[in-house]
Amino acid sequence: MQFNKICCVLIRRTCSSRGIVTTYKHYCQKPSKKLRICEALSTQEIGTQVRIQGWVRSVRSQKENLFLHVNDGSSLQSLQVVASSELNNRHLTFGSSVEISGSLVKSPHKKQNVELKAAQIRVIGDCNPVDFPFKVKERHGLEYIRQFPHLRCRTNTFGSLLRIRSEATSAIHAFFKENHFVQIHTPVISSNDCEGAGEIFQVEPAVRDRTSDEESPHFFSVPAYLTVSGQLHLEVMAGTFPCVYTFGPAFRAETSQSRRHLAEFYMVEAELSFTQSLEDLLTVMENLFKFTTECLLSRCAEDIELFHKYIAPGHKERLDLMLKDKFKVITYTEAIDLLSRSSQTFEFKTEWGCDLQTEHEKYLVKHCGNVPLFVIDYPYELKPFYARDNEDQPRHTAAAVDLLVPGVGELFGGTLREERLEMLRARLARVGLEETFKWYLELRQFGSVPHGGFGMGFERYLQCILGVENIKDVIPFPRFPHSCVL
């Protein structure tokens, strides 16, 4: 709380030799204003009494002066603090947390407008710089800091990543709000395996109080899993709202520990009603990508520049190219023809009917000019039961789309949903799921409309715009198989 009035304090002092009690009036100075580092750096109020809190990024002691750089996570840039050497003490080290009061003065250095002339420095938390895994004069690579998931947020690189991630989240919500989508909180625990691949985590309580021999072996009476997608729940809501979306965690029980896989990650998913065209989905996907990216380039320019300069040199030009023109579109059949005619040797086969692998996706993007590429109309048998049948011959396809991007491969995936009741019932019957998805069939019986939707992997999006190769470097706490860290 800030006080605008000057405090007046009465102090009574007794002179024992004379037995006289004297009262003094003491006028307190106006309390200092607490600022974040980013606010202090941008302020024009020279001479203002301020108080900052943060962590020491560097300490330089001279005979008469002490120089500190202090950061509180609000910006990549730290605030320089100048103090009398009398304020130095052995606890004031790289990594220690501090609270500093003083006045903002004009800085003689060109890199920042202001600096803080300290009147008081209080060390809140000590840090032993010898034991601290990050050193003040070293630039640590992503692979090194990955070994310290509980401390890596203290580095400039990961601090920038977390600010970018936060702004990207805000921009995604802003995009959907501006386009009149309703946000839906879909369940994290579900009985549905939306993808149908079986890569799911089953959920059961660690301890159960069994009171009856007839009790179901499952806590929810049926098997329950951590969600792999909120799509089916969004389809429910698409029966009430023309446009809905969700943004939350998803889980895949893949044993791979590669740079492309996470057991827990975040998904952006959307569903549009009253649409019978893949073009509608392609438009929303492209607009979402460009809107979010342009917001980040505007709000996080300094943080993104750090990645483009030190982590992925040259990536800025590639990102500018992605935003410049309309995304390209080819069919799956055209993609297979390109792969089959290629002189490049692929590990996986490139026949019509095979699923596109990462090596295929990266080749296609590169062949088409290293810009985002929509691949549409996949083989019907490759897609889940809900994908709309194109009813084409001789090659049977579904109204499905993937957006492939440079360096990552698949970023978005979507389909028009099969709204025709009898066709959907027949396909579910063929795979023995008609009874399981009885509720899903009922959605097509009561005021059903043509609809479609898509999902975007949030971590893959961050990899795409920053040029980061390992997906574990764009999420705060990567959780992967056989690891007990955090």
Describe this structure in words.
Residues 1-27 have low confidence and may be disordered. Strand 3, helix 1 and strand 4 (49-61) form a beta-alpha-beta unit. The radius of gyration is 29 Å and the shape is elongated. With 486 residues, it is an alpha+beta fold. It has twelve helices and 18 strands. The chain is 26% helix and 26% strand. It has an eight-stranded mixed beta sheet with strand order 9-12-13-18-17-16-15-14, with helices on both faces. It has a five-stranded mixed beta barrel with strand order 4-5-6-8-7.
Helices and strands in order:
Layout: E1 8-15, E2 20-27, E3 33-34, H1 37-42, E4 49-61, E5 65-71, E6 79-84, E7 97-106, E8 114-125, H2 142-145, H3 156-178, E9 182-183, E10 189-190, E11 225-226, H4 231-237, E12 243-251, E13 264-273, H5 278-299, H6 301-311, H7 315-324, E14 328-331, H8 332-341, H9 358-367, E15 373-379, E16 397-405, E17 409-416, H10 421-430, H11 438-443, E18 451-457, H12 458-466
Parallel strand pairs: 3-4, 6-8, 9-12, 14-15
Antiparallel strand pairs: 1-2, 4-5, 4-7, 5-6, 7-8, 10-11, 12-13, 13-18, 15-16, 16-17, 17-18
Helix pairs in contact: 3-5, 3-6
